[in-house]
Amino acid sequence: MVWNSKSRCNNMTNQHPILHCTFLLFLLYLLLNAAPTSCKFTIEPCSDDNSCNALLGYTLYTDLKVSEVASLFQIDPIGLLTANAIDISYSDVEHRILPSKLFLKVPITCSCADGIRKSVSAHYRTRPSDTLSSIADSVYGGLVSPDQLREANSIADPSVLDVGQNLVVPLPCTCFNGSDNSLPSIYLSYVVKPIDTLAAIAARYFTTLTDLMNVNDMGSAAISDGDILAVPIPGNSNCLSTKRKGFHFVVQVKRTYMIFFFFVLVLFLFFV
Q1: Domain residue spans of the chain
Q2: CB 185 within 8 Å of CB 233
């Protein structure tokens, strides 16, 4: 008697289609939930060296002096205070201590680098306890990812960081010609928190749900913790760019790869 394992497997598949499909769905669930996924963020392509003023939404991870926050982003301390309507009239204002969890609007210059809008002027000097994840998620509040830090600094082994190493920190920003619906605007890169809704973010920054969805090219109002939104803030951005608003894309890298892998596996199970 000859034992045909392939025939046996096909017979089992034909006899138990519901069990087979259930197994595949369970496998898809594991793939999508066990693996970390990348957050969504808006990209503005560019092809010139023009720049504009932009803002970053930043939440302090610990108590920091004004000068320390300014150093993280390589900006002027007085400019930081002015952007947040903090009194600058008294002496030694740069040494003022800002409390943990304080939300700040950080003024930056948004440039064109590698074909997309981003700020590349920020640098960070590593400390003994630092990892790429702690720098990205804690120090910079999710405005950059560990993978972006690794790529920007050509780090082969992210588990090994030299103390005192000077890292370039690429930060998200958009210009969109300094306008929103033909009105002057400056764009804030906002990191979504677990309690946020798109409607609440729109109300907080005096815009509409529809406008936020259009700016970020969103098909629905669904947002997730860690997503980075471009939020138009009414006012003069002093934008230097003269190009029309470019296309922008919402990317979600790792989840797409996992879904692709799942369908390849399905094809393998059915046809191999």
Answers
A1: 42-254
A2: yes
Q: How many C-beta neighbours within 10 Å does residue 196 have?
A: 17
Side chain identity, residue 130: D
Burial class, 96, CB count within 10 angstroms (exposed 0-12 / middle 13-18 / buried 19+): middle
Characterize 166-194 residue by residue with b for buried, 16 or more Cβ atoms within 10 angstroms of its Cβ, and e for exposed.
ebebbbbbbbbbbbbeeebbbbbbbbbee
Backbone φ and ψ for 23, nearest 5 degrees, come out as -60, -40
**CA–centroid distance for 126 within its chain:** 21
Can you tell me which residue has the tokens 């640098």?
123
- Does pTM top 0.90 for this prediction? no
Question: Where are the extended beta strands (E) located within 115-162?
Answer: 116-125
Pair type for strands 249-250 and 42-43: antiparallel
Q: For residue range 44-71, list pLDDT tens digits in order.
A: 999 888 899 999 999 999 999 999 999 9
Tokens at residue 127, please?
């400390």
Report the C-alpha gap between 243 and 220 in whole angstroms: 28
